[in-house]
Amino acid sequence: MNRSPFEERPPFGESIDEYINRLRNVRFRGKSFLRLAGVLLILILLFGSFYQIQPEQVGVVLQFGRFSRTTEPGLRFKIPIVESVIKVPVQRQLKQEFGFRTIETSGLRSEYSDRAYLEESSMLTGDLNVAVVEWIVQYRVSDPYLYLFKVRNVEDTFRFMNEAVVREVVGDRTVTEVLTVGRQEIETTVQQRLQELCNQYQSGITVDQVVLQNVNPPDPVKPSWDEVNQAQQQKDRLINEARAEYNQVVPRAKGEAQQTILQAEGFALDRVNRAQGDGTRFKALHDAYRRAPEVTRKRMYLETMQQILPRVGGKLILDEGAKGVMPLLPLENLQKTISTGAGRKEVTP
Amino acid sequence: MKRFPGFLLPALILVGLLTVSSSVYKVGESEQVIITQFGEPVGTPVLRPGLHVKVPFIQTANYFDKRFLEWSGEATQMPTKDKRFIWVDSYARWRISDPLKFFQRLRDEHGADSRLDDILDGETRTAVARYDLVEVVRSSNRSAESIPIASEEETEILTPIEKGRRAITEEILKRASERASDLGIELMDYRMKRINYVDEVQKDVCARMIAERKRIAERFRSEGEGEAARIRGERERDLKQIQSEAYRTAQELRGKADASATQIYADAYNRDAAFYTFMKSLETYEQTLDESSTFILTTDSELFRYLKKTP
Asked: For the segment A262-285, what is each residue's pLDDT rounded down to a tens digit?
């Protein structure tokens, strides 16, 4: 097959007829070769004119290098040789990491590189302190035309933009803000400015999300940040303890105060009621007494004597004329009773 | 003679193909082309993508990128106006705006890169040296209200700036653009990617941050102690107040009761003071006299006079 018929020489001992026959055969075989080539060419053209766009992609069709159109997912046709297709995954969310790298994501756990990418993450804050900020950015290609033909090395440029924008935003904030309360706000501001920059650069990228990861003070400063946290907790603890002491004592004191007041109220009631009772009794007694004062007074006196005298230990009744015998009386027994008693009481009506 | 045409045909085809391929050239969507004839530029630059024709063999197509190109500077150490040494790492974006000039002046991107290095590094250095560090780091003066305060002990407030990073980078961009304008280059943007302290300064800054944290920690502690002491004082005061108020109220109540009792007694007994005395005395005798008492009575007493004689 690879021998051309022109090169054929009639071998010795072969007739002209035979040679012509052989030549015909070769010609015939040559025709079949051309046919095969033709079929192949058609196949190639056919295959070259269909292409498939995956669901997450968009096809960008070029005619001799010139942008012609974009095509949606599915089986598409193009003019072979004249047109070529670049497939751009517009639906896929892309991600870039700053300050750290995920080496491998298998299953549930991601592995991170041990290396600290400090040159990416270390930055100055507005009060000229240093913060180590790690972040990721998620983005999509929203305009394949711009993405392909407007910016060279879009990914690298996008990284540069990220670093510049994050530093610009962090550079306008205090270190405390960056490390504590300002995270959310930084994320949204960065995302917004990054998008503006992407539009300005005509990069065809849409920024979906900027997420700050670890945000830390530089390593040598970390312990003192922890110390501040500790001190804050200590402060809270001290205050809580003092409050507890307060609560331990004051409510009880309030109860006790109430008790004192109520007792005093009780005393007052008692005092007044008794006074009223006594007064009323006296008044009643007096009313009765006024009708027969003389005899009542005598009766009261005698009744009292009747009550007292049986109880009293020593009793000595002298004649009014025998006052002089007093010193002679055997007072010893009497003395005994007097000394053992609480005291001597004398009654003279 | 029979073999000659067979030899000629492939040769002719070959020559034809060569001629076609040399006279037709493709310009991609992101490319621009300058045609040179023996090294000399001919005609206007070709910007339109697609197939184009040139004179074969004697003319050459020189391709240039039409896209925005990146320039990334080396991190360079430089001092600011306030004598702080920092690393500055910047990037720029540019494009070949005049391919003809570009071709004449710089030949290719490699040449452009080294020229941009010279221009931008120089301008950066000059600009940074003209401003304080804070001007390079910050971009705006945020009003104090818009700065969220983590806790009341944060006293640091951002020092106000005059120019700011944006203005400075714009200035650098403007100056560099002027210098690059006759190179066929258009500078689109210039930004500082990274600014960091050099190591010694970083150490100082860390030391300062540590000192500041310690100060805040001390403040927390002393605030805690102070507040606790205040609460303890408050406890003491409240306690005394509660107790003394209760005492006062109780005494007032007792006093009032005593007063009204006294009044009641006085009202009642004033009707007959002598009778009251008599009656009360009798009551007292009855309560106080017991077996330890001794009576010495004479017969002229009220009770015993009948012992001597009957009336």
From this structure: 999 999 999 999 999 999 988 898
